[in-house]
Write a sequence for this structure.
């Protein structure tokens, strides 16, 4: 009788398929493992980036509120400095 490590596969089958192998690089580079690993990694990285974006935008909004700035108002345009050269757009309009 074979001893089972996993409920589905006996231990000898795990060794034959490479799941109990000490060389994980060979196991992880098998095409059948890579096919499933790439989408899983992409979903995890996308989720982490999405959560990071949400947290950073929330912190930015809270900082704006703490400084007395309404976060939903559009930013005010800075007036041009006196003596600066006009932008190329101003020549086109007029």
């Amino acid at each position: 009788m074979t001893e089972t490590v996993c409920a589905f596969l006996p231990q000898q089958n795990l060794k034959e398929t490479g799941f109990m192998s000490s060389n994980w690089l060979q196991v992880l580079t098998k095409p059948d493992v890579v096919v499933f690993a790439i989408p899983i990694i992409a979903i995890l990285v996308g989720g982490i980036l999405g959560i990071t974006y949400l947290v950073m935008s929330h912190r930015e909004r809270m900082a704006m509120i703490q400084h007395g700035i309404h976060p939903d108002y559009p930013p005010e345009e800075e007036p041009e400095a006196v003596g600066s050269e006009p932008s190329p757009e101003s020549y086109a309009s007029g």
Remarks:
- Helices lie at 11-17, 24-28, 31-66, 88-93.
- The mean pLDDT is 77.
- Residues 30-70 form one domain.
- The two ends are 92 Å apart (CA to CA).
